[in-house]
# Entry
Amino acid sequence: MRWKLLGAAAVLVLAAAGAAGFLWMVARGPSFPEGELVLPGLDGPVEILRDSLGVPHVWASTVDDAFFAQGYLHAFDRLWQMELLRRVAGGRLSELFGERTLDSDRFLRTLGLHRAAESSLSVVDGEARRSLESYARGVNAALEGWDGPLPPELMILRAPRPDPWQITHTLAVEKVMAWDLAEYERSLALAGARSRLGEDLFAEILPDYPDWGATILGVQKESGVAEYTVPGPAVGPAPAGTLEPSGRGALNAVDRDRSTEFWLPPPSSPALVASAQVPEFAARVLEAGSWVRASNAWVVSGRRSHSGKPLLANDMHLSMNAPALWYLIALHAPGLDVAGMSLPGVPGVVAGHSAAVAWGFTNAMVDDSDFFVERLDPEDSTRYMTPAGSEPFRTRVERIRVRGQSGVAEHRIRESRHGPIITPVEARAGGELLAFRWVAHDPSTTSSALLRMNRASDAASFIQALRGFTNPHQNVVFADTAGNFGYWMAGRVPLRRSGAPPLLPVPGWTGSHDWVGALPFQEHPHSVNPSTDFVVTANNRQTPDSVAALITSGGWERPYRAMRIQALLADRDEHDAASLLRIQMDVGSAFVERYRNAAAAAFGAAGLPEAESLEAWDGRATLESRSAVLFFGWVQKVRSGLQSRLYGEARGYYPLYAAERVLDRDDQVMDVLGPSAARSAVEWRAMRWAEAHRLELQHPLASVPILGALMGFGKRSLPSEGSHHSVNVAGFTGTEPPFIVRWGPSQRHVVDLADPDGPGGFILPGGQSGYPRNRHAWDQLERWRVGGLWRLPLHRPALEPRVVSRVRLVPLPSSGR
# Structure
């Protein structure tokens, strides 16, 4: 019997080992073919040359074939990522995850990302449509020829083989990217805070931009925007019986800083619930594709560069996830010669450089969405009130398939003239009917614009292409090899009849806040070949002119990164690619410089010797720094104490900028709270920043027991330099160490326009492959951490010594397309 039991145990061990080995192989992914590969849908042969980091360089005889090859490569290396993105856009997560994501799907269907993508088909021009179709054919060629297991995430979820890719899926990915730029969370968080705090206390957390903060540009006298006023007819009187909201609150006449009406439920009303949020899973997967958080991009004139030509640097700050959001690629065809960051699911390069032009992005922080409180027709609940009288809601029923259930879940959605009614899927709406008006619900020509930007031959043609970049909104810096350089804010900026974006939900029945058009492209903040030696964008205010009030109601990032970059640029007479990379890696902080003395004084008032080390600290959040732990621990304790002072035990919305105001002006409060926070923070005096500040690269399935670890999904607990406001951003969560870094540079790019193939390059916080055990899944991570870049030569003689594998795609005989 004993030998039988041992034999059975051995069989189980071998079976488990075999299963583990199989899963390990699945996690490594398939090997990319070499030699020749015959594929339907091509016009001619395509060469794909890969370097030692797995970055593909595509050489094609037509632009369409180049995008076909890009679609094939994206699907081969990042199929799981693409599948997740399109399921997010379509609200189809429950087909994979079951009932646990049903609320997320209801929210996503109500948001209507895929419907918005379908609406963009009508404005995609013929050339762009051909490119999208070519890209989709490449994706589908990879799917049709798939040999072997699907990516490990799809295997674990026992998912079916992915459906064919369609061009609307590409357009939907654009909408996912735009989502986290919408002022959705801030508006509802502020509304919830106001309903709890009342008018006077609410003023303590109103967003603003400090008078001392750096702007991207000075006064734009040449643009005519210094005294910009909103065009459009005045609002006529509203129909009788529509001005008061059924007794649930009071229509406050003036938002005192912005002269705009808004809807305010009384403090005792459940109308806006402060503690709820977007369904958790939906929030996580939407965040994984966001352009929010922060970004840096700057351009330096040839007058201040060692080479005599402009220099450009860009690092876009996103949620830190695995796989990396971006995919490096170089594309070559007649009229197309470009390298940089591509987005799986989308043809072309999103940001990077061609042989003639370089460009980079930062979030422009535009208020591109509003909430409207709709009022039901008292005679008919299927209708709502407008300035012209009663109108019927538009309705539709979405059918959601749920894994493990035989039927489908039906979800009824109502829309007003302002947009979808989010009340059923947004707990914070409470009893109000909230309609969500968002720029991204409108048709977008961004896909056409990006492809034209890829093919621009100089700064002038790049700016012309940028006109079609309607969403998401971005600050764009650019330069060309002729020496031109500049900045232009891209993306549609809605104009409101009230004259400014509202901070809070506004009444929909009066028409006084309706959108009446968009800010003309020529009136967007911009500067071409300015007399200044550099232009810096770091999500800060664009201009001190009145046009800024049309862009956002104080929603810019604080100016610390912009000020630090400006100071470091001004510190040298000449710059090169290496000096720009050093600035990207800088872990000093203008925020620390502003508040370090306050922290030192607080430690001194508490009788703690650490006051001296804080006074002597250079402000750099390096891995070895102990002062960084004390300073940021103190800041978080101060913020937490101020939050409790405002809300009591039931915490509420309290952004860091609100704490800054108290630090700046309220000595009485800080005389008590500062030393108390220091006494709490001193318990971490022995910690180094490397121990207190840890990076996590998150993956949706990392927490799956056993399999998550076996597959190697994500990375955890990596020591991380930097902080919230350093140029090398490391945005963290938590009120005390260990702080967990959740967002940072999703890529870095530096280029000298005197020689785009020369010093400079690109890097990602991960690698090219979406397979977690693949050798190219993490082989860029260490370079990213220490400040290395990887060159993607555009000229073939410079590329050839770097090539480690080759494949030639050829069309089926006599088939072509």
Summary: Residues 5-18, 220-276 have pLDDT under 50 and may be disordered. The first helix runs from residue 2 to 28. The first strand starts at residue 35 and ends at 39. The CA atoms of residues 341 and 697 lie 19 Å apart.
